From TrEMBL:
GO terms for molecular function: hydrolase activity. One of its GO terms (cellular component) is membrane. This is Alpha/beta hydrolase. It comes from Methylosinus sporium. Residues 41-272 form the AB hydrolase-1 domain. Pfam families: Abhydrolase_1.
Length: 291
């Protein structure tokens, strides 16, 4: 089903998307949106906590990316327009997040995609690599994300806003979500853009948020065996993922690269879309076979 926004000022043409539903291994329905060149090599975008695939609007609407590549976004389980089961195991079984991603790729015919994962979405990539290995991927980019954890790198921004986001009281929940979103940017988006972001963040009820935040961390005993092209990208002013943690992750993985974008926060793909998209184009041209 082709979809266009009812608010052209926020999501203007020329790009439309095709919307579909994918059923994962446990019956959860995942919403998928397809953009760009359906015949091009695939890039799948994996969003962060409380967000939606719509977070990547500045990538899927980029003319250079859309001309060359099949761009796929989806709403993670418990997020956006996807199903939100009130079952702890639906979020705490790390394999299910991997199954979702594999089901999305299979449904849209995305053979050997690049994965671009933001923040919490990076955990989904690790879940996938743990479950399936890296042979089915062309490469991956981890944005504002790392696998290394340290108390000295704990995010004060998350600690301040997350408890409020878990509250059932609506006004408290909204206040926490506003604080969380605001902390994702060094340069705030426009009021119209921020309103759209707040809207899709608020589609996730606090009951689901409480289930998701407690899910166990995936062990990373498989990292030494990875051979796919892997890039860690972080904003210089990121308040949620310390650039030191991202750099340390890259240094620990053979062949991984690290890029710090200046003057941007936790959302470099949005705050400096031209620079982010240029490096993604360069990465894609390097890892996809020339046809």
């Amino acid at each position: 089903m082709a979809m266009t926004s009812a608010y052209p000022s926020l999501c203007p043409r020329p790009f439309e998307y095709d919307k579909s539903h994918v059923v994962s291994s446990d019956g959860v329905q995942i919403v998928v949106r397809r953009w760009g060149n359906r015949r091009g090599p695939p890039i799948i975008f994996v969003h962060g906590f409380a967000q939606s695939g719509l977070a990547f609007i500045r990538q899927v609407r980029d003319e250079r990316l859309a001309e060359k590549y099949h761009l796929i976004t989806y709403d993670l389980r418990g997020h956006g327009a996807s199903d939100k089961p009130l079952d702890r195991n639906a979020y705490h079984d790390n394999r299910l997040w991997a199954h979702d991603l594999r089901a999305v790729a299979a449904a849209v015919g995305a053979a050997r995609p690049i994965l671009v994962a933001w923040s919490f979405g990076g955990r989904v990539v690790w879940d996938y690599l743990k479950e399936y290995g890296d042979e089915s991927l062309a490469g991956a980019q981890l944005v504002g994300s790392s696998w290394r954890r340290s108390s000295e790198w704990t995010s004060a921004a998350s600690a301040a806003s997350l408890p409020l986001m878990l509250e059932d009281d609506l006004s408290t929940n909204i206040a926490g979500t506003i604080a969380f979103l605001s902390s994702c940017f060094a340069t705030p988006p426009s009021p119209e853009e921020f309103a759209q972001m707040l809207a899709y963040n608020m589609t996730q009820p606090p009951s689901v948020r409480r289930l998701i935040v407690g899910r166990p961390q995936q062990p990373h005993d498989f990292i030494a065996s990875l051979s796919l092209p892997l890039a860690f990208i972080v904003g210089e002013k990121d308040r949620h993922c310390d650039p030191r943690a991202s750099r340390a992750s890259a240094e620990h993985i053979r062949g991984a690269t690290f890029l710090e974008l200046p003057d941007v926060g936790h959302s470099p793909f949005y705050e400096d879309a031209p620079a982010f998209n240029a490096q993604l184009l360069s990465f894609a041209e390097r890892v996809f076979p020339r046809g």
